[in-house]
Amino acid sequence: MSLDALKSAIPDYAKDLRRNLDSVVDGSRLTAQQLWGTLLVTSIASRSPVVLRELALEAQANLSPEAYTAARSTAATMALNNVFFRTRHLLSDQEYGGLRTGLRMNVLADPGVGRTDHELWCLAVSAVNACGACLDSHERALRKAGVDRETVQEAFRIASLVQAVAVTLDAESILTEPAE
């Protein structure tokens, strides 16, 4: 299955998702590396085997080997960070904020791609994983680096779309299984 096959798997009741995929892939304001890295990290974060398999193939064809590895590293690190920092943020006891994390996150120091691309990918994964603390942190870093709001929004627009496609296709695979 390719990106086209992924789009054709989207049921007619969700045809807007198909149109949005076309719009994102063909008309994104992001660079190719930012776009395909964002698609890859959010497909990993979506936890959908179908979406990950198809978008990873396309991402691998559109990213350098270094950027492909960097995106995967970013997704792994943000899976860790999003749970940790979301939990710390949601706890009423603010004392946790002063404690040492005790988690290794070396990829943050040297992500393997430019800082802006890495921050966009971190923001997109944080959107899928609903970590407000991480969203704020990465949005601030992007804005401080001179990235405009439209570009920041493009990253979480892609995240919302990939998540919606994943939820829809995973639901369809269950709802269309023959009853035992």
Describe this structure in words.
72% of the residues lie in helices and 0% in strands. It is an all-alpha fold. The chain has one domain (3-175): Up-down Bundle (AhpD-like). Helix 3 crosses helix 5 (65-90) and helix 6 runs antiparallel to helix 7. The model has no long low-confidence stretch (mean pLDDT 93). Disulfide bonds join 131-134.
Q: What order do the helices and strands come in, and which of them pair?
A:
Blueprint lengths: L2 H7 L5 H13 L4 H15 L2 H14 L2 H26 L24 H14 L3 H13 L4 H27 L5
Helix pairs in contact: 2-8, 3-4, 3-5, 3-6, 3-8, 5-6, 6-7, 6-8
Q: Could you give a quick summary of the protein structure above?
A:
This protein has eight helices and no strands. It has 180 residues and is an all-alpha fold.
Radius of gyration: 17 Å
Shape: globular
Report the CATH architecture: Up-down Bundle
Biggest pleated-sheet summary: none
Instruction: Show unreliable segments.
Output: none
Q: Please give the alpha-carbon distance between the first and last residues.
A: 27 Å
Count of discrete alpha- or pi-helical segments spanning 4 or more residues? 8
Give the CATH superfamily.
Answer: AhpD-like
- Pattern of helices and strands: HHHHHHHH
* Category by helix and strand content: mainly alpha
Broad CATH class: Mainly Alpha
Helix content: over 70%
CATH fold naming: AhpD-like
Query: What number of domains?
Result: 1
Task: Name the average pLDDT.
Answer: 93
Strand content: under 5%
Number of strands: 0
